[in-house]
Design a protein that fits this description.
There is one protein chain. The chain is an alpha/beta fold. It folds into three domains: about 10-145, Rossmann fold; about 155-310, Alpha-Beta Plaits (2-Layer Sandwich); about 315-490 and about 550-580, TIM Barrel (Alpha-Beta Barrel). The chain has 23 helices and 21 strands. The strands form four sheets. An eight-stranded mixed β-barrel has the order 13-14-16-17-18-19-20-21, surrounded by five helices. Strands 2-1-3-4-5 form a five-stranded parallel beta sheet, with helices on both faces. It has a five-stranded mixed beta sheet with strand order 7-8-6-11-12, with helices on both faces. Helix 18 links the parallel strand 18 (about 465-475) and strand 19 (about 490-495). The longest helix is centred in the N-terminal third of the chain and has 30 residues, at about 115-145.
Length: about 600
C-alpha cells in the first residue's frame, strides 16, 4: 500500500451474507480507506445500483441462492461500464476460476484469504483507470481523426467516408447528390492582419451561419483552412445546389464581429454532382474545387463543374506524361493552313499548325495538349520541333519551285524565354534560310501577361529580320498605345469576329475598325475564319490585306499543299509548269532533345 492518507473507495458488493460483507468492509477500512459500499443480491438491485451510483470496483460472491458472479459479470458488461470485478468465494475449482477469468473477471480470492483483498482492489483500480485513460485517449484520437477541432464539424476524412457510403449504398441505381465547396474570400488578409485568434473566431461563426441554412439530411464539413463543404442528397442536385450556393454567398456577405472588430468576407462556391462528375469522393471534391476556382476567375459567385473547362482532368495529366514520348517518337505532325493576298488574289504563305498523332486518340488539335505543355518544360522542345519541321517543309517546297514564307505560333512561355531568339537563329541556320522567310505569330493576350519582357524578346527577334504578327487580335484587351511600341508588321483579326458576322452584322463594324486601325499603324491586316465567298468579298471591300480559312482551304498535309495549290485559283502566276514538275527532296526528320 502506498504511504499517505487513503482516498475514499466506492465498492459495490454482490453478496447474500451480511456477515461476509462486514468482513470485506473491515479489510478495506483496516487498510486506511474510507469505504462507501452497497450490498446487492439480485440482478434488479445491481442494475439499479449501477445506474444510480458511480463505483470504483465490484466484489461478488461466486454463488448465491438468487444470483451469481457470472450473472453479475454479464450484467456489468451489458451496462457498458469498465469496472474491476473481483470474485470472492468459499470454494472454487480451477476450471471454474479459469472460465470466470475468460468471461472478464479481473481476479478471484478465497474468503479464507481476504488479506489479499485490498492489494487486489488497489491493483485493479489502477489498471482500470489506466484502461479508461487509454480509452479516452483513443476516443479523442478517433474524434480528431474525423472532426475539425476548431469548429467541431466533420473533417475531410469523415466527409469522404460519408460520401463513399452514399455512393455504394445503391450500386444498381446510383443516388444523386451534390457536393458544394465553399471557399472564403479575403480570409488570408484577415488572418495575416489580425492574427490566428481572430481568424479562428471568424471561422467558427462562418460555420454556424452556413449550418443554419442546411437541411437535416445535409452533411456539413470543414475540409481546409478556409474551405467548407456540403453534401446535399436528393434529386436534381445541380439546380438545388446552385440555389443553396446563392443563399450561402448572400449570407456570408453580412458582416461578422470578432474580438470587437467588424469583419467582412465573401465566398465562392464550386459544385459537383454524383454520378455525373465522379464515382468516388476524391474525384467529386476535386471537381468542386476546379469549379470553384473557375468561378473565381470569372468573377462569379458559384459554378457547376464543367469537364471541358477542367485543365487538371486526370486524362489530360496522362496526356502530359505521354507528350514527352510523342516528341521523342515523332508522333507530332504539322498541318498547313494556306493564306492568300486579297490585293492580288494569290497564295501568299502558310501557317504551320501543330497536331499530335496519338496512337489511341487519333489526331489531337493543339488546344488539347499545348496548354498542358505550357505548365511543364516540354513547351520549349515542342516549339523547337515545330519550327524545325516547318522550316524543313519550306525548303522542300522551294526545291519544288514554290518560294514563300512560313508562319509559326509562339506560346506565352516561349515568348518570355530570353533564349527564344537564339533558338530561332539556330533553326534558320540549320536550313540556310534568311530570317524574312519566317513569321512568328504571338497571341495578343500572351504579350499582355508581361509586356516589358515580351517587348524585349520581340525587339531582338525583329532585329534579326524575323517578321512578327499578333494573332487573335481583339481578344486580349491590350493597350493600343503599347501595341504601337511593338516591332510587329501584321495583325490577324480573330476568327470569332469574322465568323460572328453571320449572326451579328455589327461584327463587320469591328472588322472594319480593326482594319483601319492596323493600316493607320502601318500594319498588314489578315483575317481568319473565312468560310464563305461573301465573307471573302466583304473583307476585300473593307481593305483587308490577307485571309485564311476553310473557304480558301482546310489545313493540308505538307505533301498535299503543292498539288492543291497547282489546282487552285490562288496559284501564283510565277509558278510555271516547269517548276510544278519538281518533286520535293526527302529530308531528315527533326530530332529534338526533351
Amino acid at each position: 500500500m502506498s504511504a499517505g492518507p487513503k482516498p475514499q473507495v466506492r465498492i459495490l458488493i454482490v453478496e447474500d451474507s451480511e456477515d461476509d460483507v462486514l468482513l470485506l468492509v473491515r479489510e478495506i477500512t483496516r487498510a486506511g480507506y474510507a469505504c462507501q459500499w452497497e450490498r446487492v443480491e439480485t440482478a434488479s438491485e445491481m442494475s439499479d445500483a449501477l445506474a444510480r451510483e458511480s463505483w470504483d470496483a465490484i466484489v461478488a460472491d461466486y454463488t448465491m441462492p438468487r444470483f451469481s458472479a457470472p450473472a453479475a459479470l454479464a450484467l456489468l458488461h451489458q451496462s457498458g461500464q469498465d469496472l474491476p470485478f473481483v470474485i470472492v468465494t468459499g470454494t472454487i475449482g480451477e476450471d471454474i476460476a479459469i472460465a470466470a477469468m475468460k468471461a472478464g473477471a479481473h481476479d478471484y480470492l478465497m474468503k479464507a484469504n481476504l488479506t489479499r483483498l485490498v492489494p487486489t482492489i488497489e491493483r485493479e483500480i489502477r489498471e482500470a483507470e489506466g484502461r479508461r485513460q487509454r480509452k479516452r485517449a483513443e476516443e479523442r484520437l478517433k474524434y480528431l481523426a474525423f472532426h475539425d477541432p476548431l469548429t467541431g464539424l466533420p473533417n475531410r476524412t469523415m466527409l469522404g467516408d460519408i460520401m463513399q457510403a452514399e455512393i455504394v449504398a445503391s450500386p444498381t441505381e446510383p443516388r444523386s447528390f451534390a457536393v458544394l465547396l465553399v471557399d472564403l474570400d479575403r480570409f488570408k488578409e484577415i488572418n495575416y492582419a489580425l492574427g490566428h485568434r481572430t481568424a479562428d473566431l471568424l471561422l467558427q461563426q462562418v460555420g454556424a451561419r452556413i449550418r443554419s441554412l442546411l437541411g437535416e439530411h445535409d452533411t456539413f464539413a470543414r475540409v481546409g483552412g478556409d474551405a467548407f463543404a456540403v453534401l446535399m442528397p436528393g434529386p436534381s442536385p445541380g439546380e438545388r445546389a446552385l440555389e443553396l450556393a446563392q443563399k450561402i454567398v448572400t449570407s456570408l456577405e453580412l458582416p461578422f464581429r470578432a474580438q470587437g472588430i467588424t469583419l467582412e468576407v465573401g465566398a465562392t462556391v464550386g459544385i459537383s454532382t454524383h454520378p455525373d462528375h465522379g464515382e468516388d469522393s476524391e474525384t467529386l471534391l476535386r471537381c468542386a474545387d476546379v469549379a470553384m476556382h473557375g468561378a473565381r476567375r470569372r468573377g462569379a459567385s458559384a459554378a457547376i463543374y464543367a469537364p471541358d473547362k477542367d485543365a487538371y482532368d486526370p486524362r489530360r495529366l496522362t496526356l502530359m506524361a505521354e507528350l514527352r514520348d510523342a516528341i521523342r517518337n515523332d508522333q507530332l505532325a504539322l498541318i498547313f493552313q494556306p493564306q492568300v493576298s486579297l490585293r492580288t488574289g494569290r497564295f501568299s504563305g502558310t501557317e504551320a499548325l501543330l497536331h499530335w498523332v496519338h496512337p489511341e486518340l487519333g489526331l489531337l488539335s493543339p488546344d488539347r495538349f499545348v496548354p498542358l505543355a505550357e505548365h511543364t518544360g516540354l513547351i520549349k522542345p515542342l516549339f523547337v520541333w515545330t519550327l524545325y519541321a516547318a522550316l524543313r517543309e519550306l525548303v522542300r517546297w522551294e526545291q519544288a519551285g514554290l518560294r514563300t514564307h512560313m508562319s509559326v505560333n509562339v506560346s506565352a512561355r516561349n515568348l518570355h524565354d530570353a533564349s527564344l531568339p537564339e533558338q530561332v537563329a539556330r533553326c534558320l541556320d540549320t536550313w540556310k534560310l534568311t530570317p524574312d522567310r519566317l513569321e512568328l505569330e504571338i497571341t495578343e493576350s500572351h504579350i499582355m501577361n508581361d509586356p516589358p519582357r515580351a517587348r524585349e524578346v520581340l525587339v531582338r527577334l525583329s532585329a534579326m529580320g524575323v517578321r512578327l504578327s499578333i494573332d487573335d487580335f481583339g481578344t486580349g484587351y491590350s493597350s493600343l498605345a503599347y501595341l504601337k511600341q511593338l516591332p510587329v508588321s501584321a495583325i490577324k483579326i480573330d476568327k470569332s469576329f469574322v465568323m460572328g458576322t453571320k449572326e451579328d452584322p455589327s461584327d463587320w463594324a469591328i472588322v472594319r475598325a480593326t482594319t483601319d486601325l492596323g493600316h493607320d499603324l502601318g500594319l498588314q491586316v489578315l483575317a481568319e475564319g473565312i468560310e464563305t465567298r461573301e465573307a471573302l468579298e466583304r473583307l476585300t471591300l473593307l481593305g483587308c490585306d490577307g485571309a485564311q480559312g476553310y473557304f480558301i482551304s482546310p489545313g493540308l498535309r505538307a505533301d498535299a499543299l503543292l498539288p492543291w495549290l497547282d489546282a487552285s485559283p490562288w496559284c501564283p502566276e510565277d509558278r510555271t509548269a516547269s517548276t510544278r514538275d519538281g518533286e520535293p527532296a526527302p529530308m531528315e526528320k527533326p530530332t529534338v532533345a526533351c
